[in-house]
């Protein structure tokens, strides 16, 4: 297990201080009023968080995936919604770096590095998110433009993002189906309506919306990389980043739940002693810490594999699967430790409990992760 460089550790420490000093004191108010965290997102821009995945010559301070994962976990420790605000953005930045034409990179990446332009990705449709190849959103050539029709749903940050990486069919009849899929880089404009902000259990403050494309026109050069039919493979690569990001978010939420539980278990007394000294409560804390540490190691393992440049869907899938299930369990156990206060909206643990399940669904459900893991185990002949 490698350690972060001094510079990268300083980045993580800066974000940790930001979370403790500026996020945690205000998060409950923002959460319960479902307020977009304008000031905190502005601070994240100033701290360079939106540029962490943008290399030179477009950005200044790219960091390794292990560092990025730790920054994500720190943000999620403060408020999962903040980590969400930079999740899709990072995936799109990575897509542009890996597959974009030079014109696309020059156009988008400098502004994305500062956060002046924020980006999101639109994959899921009302008809389903798991079976992406069955998508119905279609872009057809009309002279020098693409004309897009269809609908997307659950697209996070889409009202406030200026750039949307839209997964769509540019050849609906192609066989195999993935050969007809492209990523279009689209902006808000006539023919694109953000039709609804979806009400949510948690993940408050940031918007997740329905998008309707009705005769939306995009220029011919909007196809990522300039070549049609490559979008499915491009996005699957992007999702490796996305899944590490979601796994790191889960670690952050689990860390926050564990921290609160450990503190409370030492402060709260029953039967004349701190509750942690009751074996049942102590066992909960021991199991929470053990699972959390294992989850963190799996995320680090996936992030390090990513850095080698090799395919890491197996590792990212395992990290996302384990870390998200851990977050759900640790959040619930933190409620147990808090007793009645765990159910109170005046404490934070109920928020972790509402935020954690998103990570078992987002960026591909855990059922889909198991499918990816099993396929890769067979393809690689085991764990390798
Ligand atoms: C708060 C929130 C934010 C989101 N943000 C975004 C975003 O920014 N961009 C975006 O594109 N999407 C986003 N999503 C969508 C998310 O990625 C999808 O919800 C997810 O991929 C699952 O798709 P679905 O909801 O259509 O479920 P379905 O695909 O309908 O699946 C329903 C159930 O069937 C199971 N299932 C389906 N197929 C299989 C299979 N082959 N094997 C085993 N089980 C299967 C699933 O695991 C699940 O349990 C967001 C979702 C939420 C809730």
What does this protein look like?
- With 384 residues, this protein is of the alpha+beta class.
- The chain folds into three domains: 6-118, Orthogonal Bundle (Butyryl-Coa Dehydrogenase, subunit A, domain 1), CATH 1.10.540.10; 121-229, Butyryl-CoA Dehydrogenase, subunit A, domain 2 (Beta Barrel); 232-380, Up-down Bundle (Butyryl-CoA Dehydrogenase, subunit A, domain 3).
- The chain contains eleven helices and nine strands.
- The strands form three sheets. The chain has a four-stranded antiparallel sheet with strand order 2-3-7-6, with helices on one face. The chain has a three-stranded mixed sheet with strand order 1-4-5.
- A hairpin with a 2-residue loop joins strand 2 and strand 3.
- The model has no long low-confidence stretch (mean pLDDT 97).
- The protein binds flavin-adenine dinucleotide.
Q: Which terms summarize this structure?
A:
384 residues, Acyl-CoA dehydrogenase, middle domain, globular, 4-stranded antiparallel sheet, Butyryl-Coa Dehydrogenase, subunit A, domain 1, Butyryl-CoA Dehydrogenase, subunit A, domain 2, binds flavin-adenine dinucleotide, alpha+beta, Butyryl-CoA Dehydrogenase, subunit A, domain 3
């Amino acid at each position: 297990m490698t350690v972060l460089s001094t510079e990268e550790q300083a980045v993580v420490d800066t974000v940790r201080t930001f979370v403790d000093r500026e996020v945690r004191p205000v998060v409950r108010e923002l959460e319960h009023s479902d307020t977009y965290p304008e000031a905190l997102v502005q601070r994240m821009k100033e701290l360079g968080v939106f540029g962490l995945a943008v290399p030179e010559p477009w950005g200044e301070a790219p960091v390794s995936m292990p560092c990025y994962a730790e920054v994500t976990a720190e943000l999620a420790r403060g408020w999962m919604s903040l980590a969400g605000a930079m999740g899709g953005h990072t995936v799109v930045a990575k897509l542009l770096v890996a597959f974009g034409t030079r014109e696309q990179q020059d156009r988008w990446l400098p502004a994305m590095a500062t956060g002046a332009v924020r980006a999101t990705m639109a994959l899921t449709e009302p008809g389903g998110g798991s079976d992406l190849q069955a998508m119905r959103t279609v872009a057809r050539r009309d002279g020098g433009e693409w004309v897009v029709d269809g609908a997307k749903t659950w697209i996070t940050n889409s009202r406030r993002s200026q750039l949307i990486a839209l997964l769509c069919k540019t050849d609906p009849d192609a066989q195999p189906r993935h050969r007809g899929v492209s990523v279009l880089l689209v902006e808000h404009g006539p023919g694109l309506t953000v039709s609804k902000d979806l009400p949510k259990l948690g993940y408050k403050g940031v918007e997740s919306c329905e998008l309707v494309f009705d005769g939306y026109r995009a220029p011919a050069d909007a196809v990522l990389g300039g070549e049609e039919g490559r979008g499915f493979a491009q996005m699957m690569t992007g999702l490796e980043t996305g899944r590490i990001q979601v796994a790191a978010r889960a670690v952050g939420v689990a860390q926050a739940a564990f921290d609160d539980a450990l503190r409370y278990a030492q402060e709260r007394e029953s039967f004349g002693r701190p509750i942690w000294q009751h074996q049942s409560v102590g066992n909960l804390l021991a199991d929470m810490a053990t699972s959390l540490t294992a989850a963190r190691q799996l995320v680090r393992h996936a992030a390090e594999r990513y850095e080698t440049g090799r395919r890491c869907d197996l590792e990212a899938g395992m990290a996302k699967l384990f870390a998200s299930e851990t977050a759900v369990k640790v959040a619930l156990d933190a409620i147990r430790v808090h007793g009645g206060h765990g159910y109170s909206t005046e404490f934070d643990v109920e928020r972790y409990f509402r935020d954690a399940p998103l990570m078992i669904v987002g960026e591909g459900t855990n059922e889909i992760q198991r499918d990816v893991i099993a396929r890769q185990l067979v393809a690689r002949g085991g764990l390798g």
